[in-house]
Design goal:
The protein is α/β, with parallel strands linked by helices. The chain is built from 16 helices and twelve strands. The chain starts with a strand and ends in a 9-residue tail after the last helix. Bound molecules: uridine-5'-diphosphate.
Length: about 375
């Protein structure tokens, strides 16, 4: 079959969906050079009418400043009836715009990396009579909106046993569900630099205990308070330590941290493209429970101190990390500072690091694209088996 155009559908709600989409795009290019034209589209922003197209932009401010509202939305959309009624409405309002995505990209395969695409796009394909296979790559680790799972997806690639079990509960059969890991960007799949090399390249001291602190792509949560508490505590205990704070797209946070006085060496960055180097250079990471950051830290064998989670989609990630011995959870800046101080002096880090490595799946993106291509090349029909 002619299978050269692949469309990956995502939406910029957080940084993780785009990061996974890019990981898959890069994996197609690396494994099958020249064979596929892979395009990434923010379906919600680019192919729905106003005001629906503005919703992804509201996600950041809502989870940063209106968590109660997010909890309410999540609770409403946990109800399958309410969710499918809302999606039906979105589909009806957006149908004409949505058609344009098929006209513009004429895909031979559609892959979704977002929980709110399955129902709408499968309906679109069906109503347009387009015999295009549709697959889902679930980019959550341990908490899942039911929107991820649709029995008509040819394959549903998941990153953990709980995800596979949830997919099966939502009527996907064992053959449809494949547990291959969460696709993270290409540098994590290759040879990572040595710690010393990374530290030298990033201008970090080579022997100091190094703590990485971040809050997802948007720099969310009490990052500033945590940075100050950790720096203060490590200074008080006389630990030879340094702190790296990655603020993502949160410019205000970056500016305020850059203007601060610090009792230990602190590097403050905005959005960085080389997060793997910062992870390799560090001894542990403090982060909200974002699945992308967790998956990347596991690959780097980095002990993880979870400082919070977005209710709903990130809640289960806490138990996933803690129960598997790869880290701990604490949501108060002073508590976090005490744990970090403890980690700086104790021997627990090596054990947590080993547990993290066991969970990491650096080649997930390659394994997923290999299976997809095997399927496209195989005799079994991938379209229309819904
Ligand atoms: N990230 C990055 N540069 C930054 C900050 C974050 O590349 O400066 C990436 C991070 O490596 C991860 C993603 O953004 O891949 C964040 O995804 P996650 O699922 O952890 O949280 P989200 O931002 O989606 O809530």
């Amino acid at each position: 079959m002619n299978d050269s155009r692949i469309l990956i559908l995502m939406s910029d709600t957080g940084g993780g969906h785009r990061a996974s989409a890019q990981a898959l795009q890069a994996a197609f290019a690396a494994r099958y050079p020249g064979r596929f034209q892979v395009e990434i589209v923010d379906l919600w922003t680019d192919y729905t009418p106003w005001p629906i197209n503005r919703m992804p932009r509201l996600y950041g401010p809502i989870v940063a400043r209106g968590l109660w509202f997010w909890k309410l939305l999540w609770a409403v959309f946990e109800n399958e009836r309410a969710f499918s009624a809302a999606l039906r409405l979105v589909y009806l309002i957006s149908r004409n715009e949505l058609r344009k995505v098929l006209q513009a990209h004429r895909p031979h395969l559609v892959i979704s990396v977002h929980p709110f695409m399955q129902h709408i796009v499968l309906r679109l394909l069906e109503q347009e009579g387009a015999a295009v296979p549709f697959m889902t790559v679930v980019t959550d680790l341990a908490s899942f909106h039911h929107g991820w799972f649709h029995a008509h997806a040819v394959r549903c690639f998941v990153a953990s046993e709980p995800a596979a079990a949830t997919a099966r509960r939502h009527s996907l059969d064992a053959g449809q569900v494949r547990l291959l890991g969460l696709p993270v960007r290409a540098p994590f799949a290759g040879a990572l630099p040595e710690k010393e090399t990374a530290r030298a390249r990033l201008g970090l001291a080579d022997t100091a205990f190094t703590v990485l602190l971040l809050g997802g792509g948007e720099g969310m949560g009490p990052v500033a308070a945590t940075a100050h508490a950790v720096a203060r505590r490590l200074a008080e205990t006389g630990t030879a330590a340094q702190l790296v704070v990655i603020c993502g797209r949160n410019k205000r946070l970056r500016q305020s941290l850059q203007r601060s006085d610090w009792p230990i060496p602190v590097q403050v960055c905005g959005f960085v493209d080389n997060i793997q180097e910062w992870m390799v250079a560090s001894d542990c990471v403090i982060t909200k429970a974002g699945p992308g950051t967790i998956a990347e830290a596991l690959i780097c064998g980095l002990p993880i101190l979870l400082s919070g989670f977005i209710p709903g989609q990130e809640e289960g990630n806490v138990a996933y990390v803690v129960d598997n011995g790869a880290g701990a959870y604490c949501d108060s800046p002073d508590g976090i500072a005490a744990i970090i101080n403890d980690w700086a002096g104790g021997g627990q880090l090596a054990q947590m690091s080993a547990h993290a490595c066991e969970l990491g799946r650096p080649r997930a993106a390659y394994d997923i694209v290999d299976e997809i291509v095997e399927l496209l090349d195989g005799d079994s029909p991938v379209a229309g088996d819904s």
